[in-house]
Amino acid sequence: MLDEPPPSGYAQWNGRLLAQALSLPANFVWEVLRVHNIQLPRRRSWCISTDPQFVQKAADIVGLYLDSPENALVLCVDEKPHIQALERAQGYLRLPDGKALKGFSHEYKRHGTTTLFAAVEIATGQVMAGHYQRRRRVEFLDFVNKVVHAHPGKEIHVILDNLSTHKPKRDMWLARHKNVHSHYTPTHASWLNQAEIWFSLLTRYAVKGASFTSPEEVREAIDRFIAAHNPRAHPFQWTKEVVHPKSLKSHYGDLCN
């Protein structure tokens, strides 16, 4: 029944509609759904990679994580654009059930944005960052130049996503830097880049829920977080040796095959 269209006027099945369609008690249908761990109202979205070279690219990156070249530096580089400086009132609230929590006003003022470039060293978890107004090729090269300058004479492997600023048709910069090697994640699979993991930590601990009156305050908050993070940084433990692409199934019955 789940593979059939829902009744007219409804976008998806729920337990009550299934019970009506099957002429069964709703409690019985809900119990069967729980037993089989079927969660009809829950929806999740994600990018599905259609890269024909997914396996090869993923294996290359996972190989760098699990067995890095000797005496080489492996970096995950990415950018987080348009970080908003939002100003909003904050304070503590007492809920009707007696719980106290911190809250912020629904209304806010916008004070501009800033763009962050970051390089995460996979062997140590150390982070090097740079602040910019935009994320063009010129800003990207300026940041990468600083990273390379900080590690003179090192063989460097850089893991990047497929943004056009990372991979121009004629990469003259890469031709001049023979010690730098680029490794690109599969299309729509930037989650293979460990810089994304660090960005999630940054957002959770230093940006989300905070109030800023200017982009400069956002940059200062990010710099303070990096200053607190690096002394106690440690590498992310990457344990998955083999990564396969996944695709959506058209019907629930396909999950049982």
Description:
The chain has helices at residues 15-22, 26-35, 54-66, 137-149, 172-176, 194-207, 215-229, and strands at 72-87, 90-94, 100-104, 109-121, 127-132, 155-160, 180-184. By secondary structure, the protein is α/β, with parallel strands linked by helices. The protein folds into two domains: 1-43; 54-232, Ribonuclease H-like superfamily/Ribonuclease H (Nucleotidyltransferase, domain 5), CATH 3.30.420.10. The strands form two sheets. The chain has a five-stranded mixed beta sheet, sandwiched between helices. It has a two-stranded antiparallel sheet with strand order 2-3. The protein is globular. The chain starts with 14 loop residues before the first helix and ends in a 28-residue tail after the last helix. The model has no long low-confidence stretch (mean pLDDT 91).
SSE layout:
Elements: H1 15-22, H2 26-35, H3 54-66, E1 72-87, E2 90-94, E3 100-104, E4 109-121, E5 127-132, H4 137-149, E6 155-160, H5 172-176, E7 180-184, H6 194-207, H7 215-229
Helix pairs in contact: 1-2, 6-7
